Amino acid sequence: MSPAHVLEPTYRRLKRALMEGTWPIGQKLEAMRLADEFGVSMTPVRDSLNQLVGEGLVDLTPGEGYRVTLLTEQSLRDMLAVNALLLESVVDPVPQKIDEDDLTGPIDTYADRVGDVFSIFALGSENRFLRQTVDLISDRLHIVRSLEPDVLPNALEALAELESNAWATPSKRVQALRRYHDQCMANVSRLIAMLAEQGSA
Question: Is the pLDDT of residue 97 over 80?
Answer without folding.
Answer: no
